[in-house]
Amino acid sequence: MKRKWWKEGVVYQIYPRSFYDSNGDGIGDLKGIFEKLDYLKELGVDIIWLNPIYKSPNADNGYDISDYYDIMDEFGTMEDFDKLLDEAHKRGIKIIMDLVVNHTSDEHIWFIESRKSKDNPYRDFYIWRKGKGNNPPNNWTSAFSGSAWQYDETTDEYYLHLFAVKQPDLNWDNENVRKEVYKMMKWWLDKGIDGFRMDVINFISKVEGLPYDYEAEEKGGQPGFKYYANGPKVHEYLQEMNREVLSKYDIMTVGETPGVTPEVGRLYVDYDRNELNMIFQFELMDIDSGKNKWDVKPWKLTDFKRIMYKWYQGLKEKGWNSVYLNNHDQPRMVSRFGDDKEFRVESAKLLATFVHTWQGTPYIYQGEEIGMTNVRFDSIDDYRDIETLNWYNEMIQKGHDPKELLEAIYKKGRDNARTPMQWDDSENAGFTTGKPWIKVNQNYKEINVKKALEDKNSVFYYYKKLIELRRQYPVIVYGDINLLFEDDEKIFAYTRHFEGQNLLVLMNFSKDQVEISLSRELLEKDMKLLISNYDVGELREKIFFKPYEARVYLF
Ligand code: TEU
Ligand code: CA
């Protein structure tokens, strides 16, 4: 097992728009992040992942880039960025950026040129096709509702956009596109950034001919997904990107790859294939999805364990895993996988115990370290996310009940993760002195950083301790996993083993009290309690775990 800084480090994901507003315009910014670096240093994180900060009209909050070489106005200037990077490095914190190159904004100069005429030099930077009569070229749908094709009058053709209309897909089969992307990546890497998170990077190669998807149309689902996810040349392009760019720097890369299994995922992270260091898999994030994310069904712990163990086994010795339970696209983990009411603190600590003692690089999404929860806005007018609003409007058009739609948004809407970071109990949770771009979660008086820092038993200090343990005991990073109680629907337990160090992790993923009986063999070991979210006694053959109780022992 090769030791790497990106295997040992803990990543903290910042959604800048909602992190901290330094100039009172209600929008988080780079200066705001700079002012909070010491908070992140106190938490002990090693790497910051910044969601997109490039120039953007913000149709999809920065995932629609109009200039890769400049900072979006709302977030500040390139000088602000240079200072942030320098100050982070001074604190021993690395920064990775969000690489969004499956698509650009429709306000990017390349697209402005491309749409001018069919013989414009930039025409083939994007994917243009003639319609079928008055219909789009095929039945592919956008992730943000509606067709994945937009008709453009000027040249009487359609362009492909797997996401918003304002996010035209780049044509990666055009080597000039690839050259421009690699040039831009090197420009940022030469500034000293420490790597990239790569947005839907497994969508960049589409099947030749962009086939009509009859199967998905009959079965329901997202027509086109099987023709653009994990496409025919995706590995060729990533190996080229690695040769041309990634291999020249000591950096980390994590690919966002919706719809991969461990077998497919391994092809992106296998050490011998020289593509990426790790990926974000979505199987766990789809655990409570029926026919789509809004069709919420209950999840089972045995499925949770099966998925995570399958990914551990699938990549073992060949590649590396990321471990995350939420991000800017997902609901808050304590609301989804824990209990955000009676046992919010205990279950937040329990979930963190899993993320930080499983094998793989742990990702902390801003606010989870203080147990921030989902939000419930009374009106759809308080929501901001294009995915949510497009879906809501599409469903209203189809006659669905607004109340039912809001219930689904409460469970799975992306704005759950995008309400402002809660710094203290002053107005707007100390996020801004202005009017926040999105309303603050009204539980901020209870849940905020100031309160957490004053409470030695807070979720914050539990995270801090987990991060410290990770540095202290290599078994936490590199240890093999041996699952215990596999078929139990409440207990999640395993041992870890590495170079003579051993870990025992015991977790009660339920709000019930459970009895755990341990083997004699385990009990004979000399156990040292490393961390627990309750005051616990010594290990005995039969122990009763309280709701959401977690314990980690070294032996
Ligand atoms: O998300 C890609 C993606 O798969 C999303 O459609 C996600 O699965 C969905 O939003 C979950 O509800 C990436 C970015 O993380 C997301 O913020 C962007 O909106 C999207 O790509 C387009 O750039
Ligand atoms: Ca601001």
Question: What's the layout of helices and strands?
Answer:
Blueprint: H1 5-8, E1 11-14, H2 30-35, H3 37-43, E2 47-50, E3 54-55, E4 67-71, H4 78-90, E5 94-99, H5 109-114, E6 128-129, E7 149-152, E8 157-160, H6 175-190, E9 195-198, H7 214-219, H8 225-228, H9 234-244, E10 252-256, H10 262-269, E11 278-280, H11 301-315, E12 322-323, H12 333-336, H13 344-357, E13 361-365, H14 386-397, H15 402-412, H16 449-453, H17 459-472, H18 474-478, E14 480-484, E15 491-498, E16 501-508, E17 514-517, H19 520-523, E18 528-532, E19 542-545, E20 550-554
Parallel strand pairs: 1-2, 1-13, 2-5, 5-9, 9-10, 10-11, 12-13
Antiparallel strand pairs: 3-4, 6-8, 7-8, 14-15, 15-16, 16-20, 17-19, 18-20
Helix pairs in contact: 10-11, 13-17, 14-15
Structural class by helix and strand composition? alpha/beta
Rg over CA atoms, rounded to whole Å, is: 23 Å
User: Which of globular, elongated, flat, extended, rod-shaped describes the shape?
Assistant: globular
Total individual domains: 3
Molecules bound to protein: 1-O-alpha-D-glucopyranosyl-D-fructose, calcium ion
What is the CATH H-level superfamily of the largest domain?
Answer: Glycosidases
pLDDT < 50 stretches: none
Average pLDDT over all residues? 98
Number of strands: 20
Strand order of the largest sheet: 11-10-9-5-2-1-13-12
Q: Any idea what the CATH architecture of the largest domain is?
A: Alpha-Beta Barrel
CATH topology of the largest domain: TIM Barrel
Family: Belongs to the glycosyl hydrolase 13 family.
Pfam families: Alpha-amylase, Malt_amylase_C
GO molecular function, one term: alpha-amylase activity
Keywords: Cytoplasm, Glycosidase, Hydrolase
